[in-house]
Write a structure and sequence with these properties.
Layout: E1 8-11, H1 31-46, H2 50-72, H3 76-128, E2 131-134, E3 154-157, E4 187-191, E5 202-208, H4 221-226, E6 236-242, E7 250-254, H5 278-289, E8 295-298, H6 304-307, H7 311-320, H8 337-347, H9 351-358, E9 366-371, E10 374-379, H10 386-429, H11 434-439, E11 443-446, E12 449-452, H12 480-483
Antiparallel strand pairs: 1-8, 2-3, 4-7, 5-6, 9-10, 11-12
Subcellular location: Cell membrane
Membrane topology: Lipid-anchor; GPI-anchor
Function: VSG forms a coat on the surface of the parasite. The trypanosome evades the immune response of the host by expressing a series of antigenically distinct VSGs from an estimated 1000 VSG genes.
Length: about 475
């Protein structure tokens, strides 16, 4: 059966299905609530790719280990099977790398807008704490000379009582009656840059007269002073600042057009540009980023049943195996049952069987590393840098070349000796007598006939090509096939 899915994908954020709007976003009642909600939004958005990035790092490490094991393997079949595993890991790694590349830009854009909104809210919090008071002490001036003007100095500071406090990043709390569920924000109250000045609240300056003040409302400042008699002087002078309500400087931003989170962006934000008000740009960025469906391609299990359904592994094994070199569509297991069966058997029935088969090739294998002028054999699972990997691959390639040269020399020597034996065999074959046979150099009488004497011994058990091992010892029977 054709594998329905070659890579296991894990969904980090679902973009579909009925979702309930977060009530905390609409219960924001002060600038500190808004800052706390933005803080949670920022953490959520910045973590959307965390799982994928962690998996990428793990797969890069796994791929490095497998490639080193492949380079260190002395048998062609082992190298081919390790190549299949490397292909499966590389495929998942490529999918994850593409996921990061495709989504990182949108995430960064959202984070940029959230950060800018946080700056606006920080300014609103600072403004909301401004307290204006009549300056204490003898610093005021009355009319003197030709000036009939009283000057009252005012002092401002950040001590307005009753203002909110920022929640530390490592703490959690409710907004209104709900814990923030930022992934499902639908409508949110945000500070509007155009209204930021209103966060400073309103200050009332008052002068208390001795008596005879009218109580008429809605007067100008001059009329208000004229309505009182100050013949006996002012009884009291003061200033009182009243904190602004959060609604004075905020705007409700609708993110989605429907009644629940997800789907089409609301008309208020969908056409936002870089010239739109900052809070509108935030709404558009949130609409885009919170709809993302981030999937992570997991590293496949290393076992036969899993890898026989992995298209990348099947294709890689077929490409490096003489037995399956003519297979045109390796991933189609409905037509390539032999390849699929081979892969299932070769990798083992489960992860435990795989480990038993390949532990000596991967977990226990060491590679040469030169450090401080000394070459040491380092376990390949401990090779963690690209520099060490490159160095180890170079040394292993050198070893492989030396093995191949040794095998080629041994094969050449074998062929030369076989040729000599063949020629000598022709000379010896003409002698029927035992004594005359012995008199001839290089001949011996054996099994009732005169034969060439075999004296050469060549031994090698190096396999670099995937063919059967070369094993040539002193037993002349091993050379018999050259004499026929």
């Amino acid at each position: 059966m054709t594998p329905a899915l070659a890579i296991l994908l894990v969904v980090t954020v679902a973009a579909s299905g009925q979702r309930k709007a977060d009530p905390a976003a609409t219960e924001i009642s002060n600038a500190c609530d808004e800052e706390y909600y933005l803080q949670k939004l920022k953490h959520h958005v910045s973590s959307l790719l965390d799982r994928t990035k962690r998996t990428i790092a793990e797969q890069q490490s796994e791929l490095r280990k497998i490639r080193l094991a492949q380079a260190a393997a002395t048998e062609h079949e082992h190298r081919c099977l390790l190549h299949g595993i490397a292909a499966a890991v590389a495929e998942a790694l490529e999918v994850n790398t593409r996921t990061v590349q495709n989504n990182e830009g949108m995430i960064d854009t959202a984070l940029k807008h959230i950060s800018k909104q946080q700056q606006t809210v920080a300014a609103a919090i600072a403004l909301s704490k401004i307290n204006t008071k009549v300056t204490t002490g003898n610093v005021h001036t009355g009319g003197s000379g030709t000036s009939d003007k009283v000057t009252i100095k005012l002092t401002t500071d950040g001590t307005l009582p009753g203002t909110c406090s920022i929640t530390p990043a490592d703490q959690t709390r409710t907004i209104g009656t709900a814990q923030p569920d930022v992934a499902n924000v639908h409508t949110i109250k945000l500070t509007a840059e155009a209204k930021l000045y209103k966060a400073a609240g309103q200050t009332e300056f008052s002068v208390t007269a001795g008596a005879s003040c009218s109580t008429t409302a809605a007067q100008t400042a001059e009329q208000a002073f004229t309505s009182c008699t100050f013949a006996g002087g002012a009884q009291a002078v003061g200033a009182t600042t009243t904190a602004a309500a959060h609604t004075d400087y905020t705007t409700a931003i609708n993110i989605y057009s429907g009644s629940s989170p997800g789907g089409e962006c609301h008309a208020d934000v969908k056409s936002a540009t870089s010239n739109s008000p900052q809070e509108i740009q935030v709404g558009k960025a949130l609409c885009d980023v919170l709809k993302l469906q981030i999937t992570t391609a997991e590293t496949p299990n290393f076992d036969g049943p899993t890898l026989q359904g992995n298209g990348a592994a099947l294709t890689a094994v077929a490409a490096c195996s003489k037995r399956f070199k003519d297979v045109l569509k390796p991933a189609d297991t409905t037509k390539n049952t032999q390849l699929s069966s081979y892969v299932k058997e070769a990798y083992g029935s489960d992860t435990a069987a795989f480990k038993k088969k390949f532990a000596s090739l991967i977990d226990d294998k060491k590679a040469p590393i030169v450090s401080e002028g000394k070459t040491t054999m380092k376990p390949i699972k401990e090779v963690t840098s690209a520099a060490e990997e490159t160095q180890a691959l170079g040394h292993l390639e050198k070893q492989r070349t030396e093995r191949e040269e040794e095998a080629a020399q041994a094969k050449s020597t074998l062929a030369t000796e076989a040729e000599k034996v063949s020629e000598k065999g022709k000379e010896c074959k003409g002698e029927a007598g035992k004594d005359k046979c012995k008199e001839k150099d290089g001949c011996e009488f054996k099994d009732g006939e005169c034969k060439a004497k075999v004296t050469t011994a060549v031994t090698t058990n190096t396999n670099t090509t995937g063919s059967s091992f070369f094993v040539i010892n002193k037993d002349p029977l091993l050379l018999a096939f050259f004499l026929t």
